Amino acid sequence: MIKDFVEELTWRGMVHDVMPGTDKHLMTGMQAAYVGIDPTADSLHIGHLVGVMMLRHFQLAGHKPLALVGGATGMIGDPSGKSAERNLLDEKTLRRNEEALKEQLSRFLDFDSNANNAAILVNNYDWMKDFSFLEFIRDVGKHITVNYMMSKDSVKKRLSSDAKEGMSFTEFTYQMVQGYDFLHLFRTHNCTLQMGGSDQWGNITTGTELIRRIGGGKGYALTCPLITKADGTKFGKTEGGNIWLDANRTSPYKFYQYWLNTSDEDAEKYIKIFTFLSKEEVNTFVTNHNEEPHLRGLQKKLAEEVTRMVHSQEDLDNAVKASNILFGRSTSEDLRALDEKTFLDIFDGVPQAEIKKSELENGLDMIGALAAKTNFLSSNGEARRELKQNSISVNKEKVKEDYLIKESDLINDKFVLLQRGKKNYFVLVVN
Hints:
single chain; 431 residues; alpha/beta; six-stranded mixed beta sheet
């Protein structure tokens, strides 16, 4: 059964531009659409997630999604929204990245079933690698005028920018290569729709022109808004860089925390875009949040849904437990259950001091651990006062002045967590 895909995306705030007639075309029966994905890394990041969600909604609506890995275009570099050319990759790297991306995409798209609308992964390098330059300018280039290409916003912005290097011929022809992708998929997979971010509109409509002029058919275009944050900072970025879908690049804990820390305004927008919750469910969560915003229920639901979708229920459970170590009630056992990466992520920025493992052989006294060896507290006297007031913990368990830190206290055979009160932490790193 075909569902109204454009209507679904519209209420979710995921439509920026759509070519007239697209909605009617999609309701005539199963259609194929594609989204291009940049293969310059061996993992997607959350900036890619909007396009992936569009493909998933497309499949849920009864249509056939094509995920195009831009092996050829990745060798060129898309000028859209860029101020400089990107580094170019070799084929071996691109192929490795392609395999990694398919594995991640399979968490969202059904590639393997026998359904008519099973997803397909394609790589434009496969049809561009044997295309000679002379063939391309003869068979494709003559159908699009320079005037047409110059009218595109992506080209105008680069030419009018202050960048000293200007815009290379390679970049200028990017829209032709992407346009040819659409024509090729139209011919080989009967693909009639290309989707992407709003900065891709010019490239996509070049494809619809080629389909009209060379393919003798009609192509459609749909773009989503570029995702922004209410505070003006870039979506999907932190001080440490991109938020990746690969757990080895961004731990599930840090991934969970990114969504948990969104503003109220952003959470209301993101929960529509990055989850599959129904309109009624979203409206209920938004209403409940507005009544009790201090509980941050919307952020919690958003973080739960996205973390479970990208990683797993187990990863979500562990991320919630890890969050409680800093911000809620937790035990020494919870702390010991953390792997080293998550431990370091949680206590990133917490003051540290290094000591030698040999110092734990006979036990490290608490005065030394708090003051003399670490300077966590300013003096031995302050350390004694805090210990007498029962405000010092080792690995989340309260200790007295006579406690000795030993090797058995080490977390991951390397760390000891000291704590004064509820919020003051210090990490002993034992080498």
